[in-house]
From TrEMBL:
Keywords: DNA-binding, Transcription, Transcription regulation. Pfam families: HTH_5. It comes from the Bacteria. InterPro entries: ArsR-like_HTH, HTH_ArsR_DNA-bd_dom, HTH_MetalResp_TranReg, WH-like_DNA-bd_sf, WH_DNA-bd_sf. This is Transcriptional regulator.
Length: 104
């Protein structure tokens, strides 16, 4: 979980995730949208991949990156349930209902 929060703590990495939301892109394609070198983009992609938020596939001379949507959604959903004041009571209520159903 720490790796996910570390990855999401960076504005450029969050922007990279946004760019990958609808398309599979190479590091060069991502770098063309930012004011940073391909090397810097590759480092950010490495952090995102290490956190399990993106995956890569080498095709010919290019590495294509894409989101791991299930992992990202689960991580963000879990985070929101912990920090959101509205979600905390709902999470407690849900746990109580689950415990009640289990007891019945």
């Amino acid at each position: 979980m720490d790796k996910i929060f570390e990855a999401l703590a960076s504005t450029p990495r969050r922007k990279i995730l946004a760019y990958l939301a609808e398309a599979e892109l190479t590091a060069g394609e991502i770098a063309s949208r930012f004011d940073m070198t391909k090397s810097a983009v590759s480092q950010h992609l490495g952090v995102l991949e290490n956190a399990g938020l993106v995956t890569s596939e080498k095709r010919g001379q290019y590495v294509h990156y894409r989101l791991v949507p299930d992992h990202l959604a689960n991580a963000l959903n879990g985070y929101l349930q912990v920090v959101c004041p509205v979600s905390r009571p709902l999470k407690r209520e849900s746990a109580a209902l689950a415990a009640k159903k289990k007891a019945d």
